[in-house]
Amino acid sequence: MKKSISFITLMILVLSLLASCNVTSDGPDTALPNSATDFEYEVNSEGGIIITKYVGTDKSVVIPAQIENKNVTIIGRQAFRESVIVSVHIPNTVIEIDYYAFADCKELKTVILCENLTKIGEGAFSNCAALCEIELPNSITALEECCFQYCTALKS
């Protein structure tokens, strides 16, 4: 019973966030994107780039909009899982954050989502204990289960 109550509470929080967010433009990036060498990646069948793993050392990450002249469109499954990153800026080319992409990033405090993001996969930000605020864009059409489970500092 306790799990279903916490899940319901989490879903109410997420739905209220979706209803109350005002999306603002990312505007020009103030920080330069990380180098493509900071990521392992692959090209998907549509010709977009999927980030499959973060191998860089920066704690503040700006994901590049393009790698090899192809748009970065997906942050793949577990790509940043257990990273010690503190912040991440996701470019407007990204439309999906896959399952557990940022799970267990216990130091992650700041996430800047893009306006074109349509899907946040299951557990994408689960157990990000330092994450206290996130603005969800209106473009999201799929918000899967447990996206923000155990984000104990999440206030809004």
How many helices in DSSP terms? 1
Q: Report the strand count.
A: 10
Low-pLDDT stretches: 1-29
Structural class, from helix and strand content? Answer: alpha/beta
Which band does the percent of strand residues land in? 15-25%
Oligomer: single chain
**Inertia-based shape:** globular
Radius of gyration: 15 Å
CA(first)-CA(last) distance: 25 Å
What is the N-to-C order of secondary-structure elements (H for helix, E for strand)?
A: HEEEEEEEEEE
Fraction of residues in H or I helices: 10-25%
Largest sheet: 7 strands, mixed
What does the average pLDDT come to?
84
Quick summary:
This protein has one helix at 2-20; strands spanning 39-43, 49-54, 60-62, 66-67, 70-75, 87-89, 96-97, 110-112, 119-120, 142-143. The protein is α/β, with parallel strands linked by helices and 156 residues long.
Outline the structure in words.
- The protein starts with a helix and ends in a 13-residue tail after the last strand.
- Helix content is 12%, strand content 22%.
- Strands 1, 2, 4, 5, 7, 9 and 10 form a 7-stranded mixed β-sheet that branches. Strands 3-6-8 form a 3-stranded parallel β-sheet, with no helix packed on it.
- With 156 residues, the chain is an alpha/beta fold.
- It is built from 1 helix and 10 strands, in the order αββββββββββ.
- Strand 1 and strand 2 form a beta hairpin.
